[in-house]
Write a structure and sequence with these properties.
- This protein is α/β, with parallel strands linked by helices.
- Among the domains are: about 15-25 and about 175-285, Rossmann fold (3-Layer(aba) Sandwich), CATH 3.40.50.720; about 50-135, Rossmann fold.
- The protein contains ten helices and 13 strands.
- The longest helix is centred in the N-terminal third of the chain and has 21 residues, at about 30-50.
- It starts with 13 loop residues before the first strand and ends with a helix.
- It binds NADP nicotinamide-adenine-dinucleotide phosphate (NAP).
- NADP nicotinamide-adenine-dinucleotide phosphate binds near residues 187, 229 and 251.
Amino acid sequence: MGSPEPPPGGGSSQFDEKDGRVTAQLIDGLALSRQIRAEVGARAAALAARGRPPGLAVILVGDDPASAVYVRNKVKACHEHGLHSVLEQYDATLPQATLLERIAALNADPAIHGILVQMPLPRHIDPQQVIAAIAAHKDVDGFSVLSAGELMTGLPGLRPATPYGCMKMIESTGRAIPGRHAVVIGRSNTVGKPMALLLLQANATVTVCHSATPDLAVHTRQADIVVAAVGRRNTLTAGMVKPGAIVIDVGMNRNDAGKLCGDVDFDAVREALGPAGFITPVPGGVGPMTITMLLVNTLQAAETQA
Ligand code: NAP
């Protein structure tokens, strides 16, 4: 039995020689990222040649080790693709008023086109006030009420990077989205809700599940596309998917051995999807795409401001 055609995103199915099973094709977030980042690099160079290199300011408050890693990766990705980036690091005791003053200064800085404040913030700082302080055209995280409203009403704007990256991964399969049934598990403002809206905008029929959904499997078994954004491993298991579906795993969890894993029981679900299905790995799936789409948003903001 031959392997199915790989999708444009660099996917491949796996033939298990031991028992002759062919499992779902992999949507490779690293390969797709490389492709998109090459375009980002070219567009950034074009702006730089006009004396307007795209600039991202990243603010980190406190010493959360995971946040420090995310921030470092974002700044590193900027440097690797010709974007100017500034990292501002502050002690956890930073007063909210000082943070808001820094954001106001960056709003007025013509060398900065995108501003990102790494979440979570220390408890004495109100994240909503901080997000609201970022100028709308520099809101590259797409978390502001205005950006959410633009997405909700179908206006152009900056889309939250994680669901935006998930859409690119779904599109990379080459499968048409209109008319498909998509099930999003999770309804956070940063992942689940914008994901559902992006799928709706792409003309999918969308079901949103959450912690009060009594029987997840009833919904996921009917889905052509499942996006799991929960933060709990093994939320999606083999008996919960339809063969041939596309499964996007946003979750970032640790297994018993301390290894990074997603919300999906990867090996079993990959097998249950069969050769016509697609699945994203963790790591190497949604994670790299999130940073890639942050670069895309910064570039888009810079091009608009230019
Ligand atoms: P969140 O704010 O905690 O939201 C989790 C959502 O899952 C909530 O809507 C919650 O429902 C729902 N949920 C919880 N238990 C459930 C269950 N048993 N069945 C169905 N739904 C359930 O998390 P988030 O920020 O959206 O992130 C979700 C996951 O994605 C986390 O693991 C996070 O680390 C990861 N993540 C990864 C990236 C990346 O770049 N790879 C980016 C962002 C997030 P309720 O609303 O009813 O509470």
